[in-house]
Amino acid sequence: MINVTVWNECRHEKEDADVQECYPETIGGCIVEGLKPFGFNLTSATLDDPEQGWPQERIDNTDVAIWWGHRYHDELDDKLIDKLQQRVLEGMGLIVLHSGHHAKLFKRLMGTSCNLSWREAEGGERERVWCLKPSHPIAYNLPPQIELPLSEMYGEPFDIPDPDELVFTSWYQGGEILRSGCTFTRGRGKIFFFSPGHETFPIYRNPHIIQVLANAIQWSNQAHTSGWNMKNWGRPVPLEKGAPKQTYFKKPRKLMLAEKAAQKK
């Protein structure tokens, strides 16, 4: 069974009446409820939980993380982001939703600003999510396009690296488009960015959107843990007989600095 942590900032639900009305069970709670029929081991977490929702045991045991954040990205502790980034590199799947494009973790993994254009039109506007790769695992059991009557516009240019694969593109009523379903690989970890999901529209109640998330969980779950993690690997002894060997060993830089500091005392 895949261990899935649904991390939701969960401040809108405390501060904004329109979000409370749309998602009385919280955004994360709605996503968890929608995913229950798919047989995942689901855990909810929020920014205001102890350790910002990420105690070490949860970090270690999460196979796939779903991330929804918006106003309070900067509150995430940098040391926590270091730990989560390392888990992605080691193979934890990551699904970043909507305004999570500005999450510290996502920007760290992308290496860019992740800025885009946006418009929050009064009353919302129509979004059409087109599936560009119907044979892709994330596109399983989906129609050619998903119609969202009310959405927030996210548009190009979107400052991200070229995706490994572009699974979905969105068109908006105002004429803009966005690369709205993008996959990336970092180390052993698979990452999926999916843009639909404004907090005042019931997008996560759409069964097709939940199907996308369920598919993305299956896709981003690490297939196996054998082999090497992407770590610096000293190999003083070569594979081939007769090849030159490394006959000296440099001390690690941290050890050398510690020894120098001790000598000064």
UniProtKB/TrEMBL annotation:
Pfam families named among the record's database cross-references: ThuA
Segments forming domain ThuA-like: 3-219
InterPro entries for this protein: Class_I_gatase-like, ThuA-like, Trehalose_catabolism_ThuA_prok
SUPFAM superfamilies xref list: Class I glutamine amidotransferase-like (SSF52317)
Protein name in UniProt: Trehalose utilization protein ThuA
Source species of the chain: Alteromonas gracilis
Source species taxonomy: Bacteria, Pseudomonadati, Pseudomonadota, Gammaproteobacteria, Alteromonadales
